[in-house]
């Protein structure tokens, strides 16, 4: 029997993250009341700041969801650092790879409405966004500097940034074409980073035998990483494998242009002689 896990909407995920962050932050003074304060306590101000920012953003979501809708066309883009994008293009060109799979780490929505300027907005990740290629009809509810998007036949997309009338700085936006999106970071690499950070912050607590403090530090790191990822609209690692050209179908080199004839004799036109 196959178990299907239904995706949790973004408002529930964000609300749960904020509640857990506030609860763990409130428990920090009681855990560190005795003994030296570990390095993990340095994360508490960052966690409280993130929880406060999310509370403000949730208020913006509530106001925008009650605004009057207007129709628009949506194209989902993936954001990638400019240097990383240039490095990938150079590597693919050197290898002769015809890879057209859009790759990136964050999801941006580009909205078009007639002759009006385009709107750009980073959005919170939803599972079905990976397959949302091409243009789609949406209803836009914009208020308080953000826009909530109702995608026709899919669901609701929630904002992770303010709505911009310009392209975001420092990133390259790649629209989703006919292939699903992919994130180059693997789950193993992400897990390795979390394990290293957790070991660094909870190591002192384990050394002095405070296992409860160590568990608190590990949980705080995981919840904080989840909250930061949702704030920046990060997509989960992985995705479908990147498409490669079939074996034996290597693109043929472009033919060099023919050289122009420089003389009339070479072109075959006879010359007249003087008598």
TrEMBL record:
Ranges of biased composition (kind: Low complexity): 244-258
Domain of life: Bacteria
Region (Disordered): 240-275
Parts of the chain that traverse the membrane: 12-32, 38-56, 187-208, 214-234
Keywords in alphabetical order: Membrane, Transmembrane, Transmembrane helix
Protein name as it appears in the record: Uncharacterized protein
Source organism of this protein record: Catellatospora methionotrophica
